[in-house]
Amino acid sequence: MTSEVNEKENVLKPFSTVQLLMFCLGFFGLQFAWQMRLALSGPVTEGLGADPLIYGLISLAGPFSGMVVQPIIGALSDKTTSRFGRRRPYLLGGAILASLALWIFPNSGTIVQYFGNAFGVAVAPLAGLVLAGIMIWIIDACVNIAQGPYRALVPDVVPRQQHAIANSYLSFAIGLGSVVAAATPPVLSKFFHIIMPIPAQFLMAAIAFTGAMLVTCIAIKEKQYIPEKKEDNEEKKSFLASLKEFLTTSPEIVKICALQFFTWIGTMCLLLYFTLFVVHNLYGVPDIIPTGVDESIYESIRLSGTNFALICMALFNLVCFVVSIPIGYLSTKFGNKYVHCLALFLMAIGYIILGFAHTKALTAFGIGLAGIGWASILALPFAMLSEYIKPGSEGSVMGIFNIFIAGPQVVVCTIVAWIINHNTYVKEAGTYYHWEYAFFIGAIVLICAAFASLLIKEKK
After folding, report:
1. What is the dihedral of CA 263, 268, 270, 276, to 10 degrees?
2. Which of these, 270, 354, 368, lies nearest to 321 by C-alpha position?
3. C-alpha to C-alpha distance for 88 and 330, rounded to whole angstroms
4. Comparison of pLDDT for 255 and 164, the residue scoring more
5. Percent of the chain scored above 90 by pLDDT?
6. What is the band of 273 on the pLDDT scale with cuts at 50, 70, 90?
7. How many domains does the chain have?
8. Which helix (H) or strand (E) holds 427?
9. Angle made by CA atoms 343, 344, 350, in degrees to the nearest 5
10. pLDDT tens by residue, 324-347
């Protein structure tokens, strides 16, 4: 149920609404899993002994795998001519491997202890954290294996006039997947008195990822691809040469990359640190508990804080879900860059509100406002870039473009983590990190990104 190629005119037929929904279903599963990884990896690694800097270093898995894996997989998928299609093998393969790691990750401490007891070997105190870190790297690498070729499917099978709308549907799927993932545990607890442990939440994410991606892979009928014959020197082109060619294709591509650089520093400031901000700063659980105080007394508060963070992330993505398709249509009418600029300004305002928030209501309002920018981030930069993609290089271009999404995240995982790790304050209950600093830093760079978007010249 996807667009079919008119062989005589070599023109892609427009997608219907049902086809667009089927097309984006796999992204729903991908984001379902990714939401669990982002929202709960902090509490899991913290329970295994990680401080903010160690957590940030573990989270480097995302940007590094994005910078390395997506360009490689994107280029490979461009040249793939299997009977299963160009992109589908990577979509489904990444989903299956990521799902396995999603099951292992929250059980890392238990698994290490089990094998230690089985073989009579003393388990090192941080062995569980090491295994969890490895699983995060595998999850992030496999998500990138699936994500790059998925984005490349848009110019592959969707008519050019529907690129903005198709990317908006992917934003729609991302928002819906995140809402369902984040809302399920709190809803089950609130209305059905069912407490879903963190390992069960990750297992749910694994099933959703593989199941949804399988349905999309079955529904998608990729057009027949016959690779063009290339000269030997073109075939052996290095990655750096490809990157140079990508950046020199058009001055507007450089501007779009600069836009993404600032945007994703700001975005990851929220996605990585929000749950820990809620648990420690809003709910008052100390990051460092004084000696002699029973940590178990904070466990119920910690769980409540985690559940509220999930509710807020559900709201964040619900806003994304609601406004993503209208943003696509508005950008078609008024231009991508103007709609995107406004959305980023609103997101920055939401961050500032979060930085000063001391109540649940204000926290929810701030993150809801930020959700407008999130919907735009997931769609419009890709729509702007797609205007400059040379046919046949979609996967490579999306992989290279991801460097300007993944690379800035290194800043968040190192410099921002270092700033938080070296700024504490003491209250009667214990010592706290300034997690809110992440939001202030994020607001500044989002404003820079908003101005950068206005410099882009779009094709008519």
Report:
1. -170
2. 368
3. 31
4. 255
5. 37
6. very high
7. 1
8. strand 424-427
9. 95
10. 878 888 888 888 899 999 999 999
Q: How far apart are CA 199 and CA 194, in angstroms?
A: 14
DSSP secondary structure letter of residue 13: P
**CA neighbor of 337 nearest in space, from 397, 392, 380, 290:** 380
Is the sign of the CA dihedral 316, 319, 325, 326 positive or negative? negative
Q: Judging by DSSP bridges, how do beta strands 424-427 and 430-433 pair with one another?
A: antiparallel
| Cβ-proximal residues to 13 (8 Å cutoff; 6+ apart), any chain | 3, 4, 5, 6, 159
Q: Which residues contact 278 (CB under 8 A, 6 or more apart)?
A: 305, 306, 308, 309, 312, 363
Instruction: Answer yes or no: is 69 within a domain.
Output: yes
Q: Is residue 229 part of a domain?
A: no
Q: At residue 287, what is the residue type? A: D
Q: What is the pLDDT of residues 344-388, one digit of tens each?
A: 999 999 999 999 999 999 999 999 999 999 989 988 988 888 777
Query: Residue 173 falls within a domain, yes or no?
Result: yes
Here the tokens at position 329 are 């249509």
CB-based burial, 405-441: b 16+ in 10 Å, e otherwise:
bbbbbbbbbbebbebbbeeeeeeeebebbbbbbbbeb
pLDDT digits (tens, 9 = 90+) for 137-186: 899 889 988 887 887 788 788 887 887 788 778 877 877 888 899 889 88
Assigned domain for 6 exists: no
CATH of the domain at 259: 1.20.1250.20
Facing residues of 424 across strands?
433
414-425: pLDDT as tens digits: 999 999 999 999
Q: What is the largest CA-CA distance in the chain?
A: 78
Please give the span between the terminal C-alpha atoms of the chain, in angstroms, as a whole number.
30
435, 282 contact by CB (below 8 A): no
What's the domain range around 26? Answer: 12-222+240-454
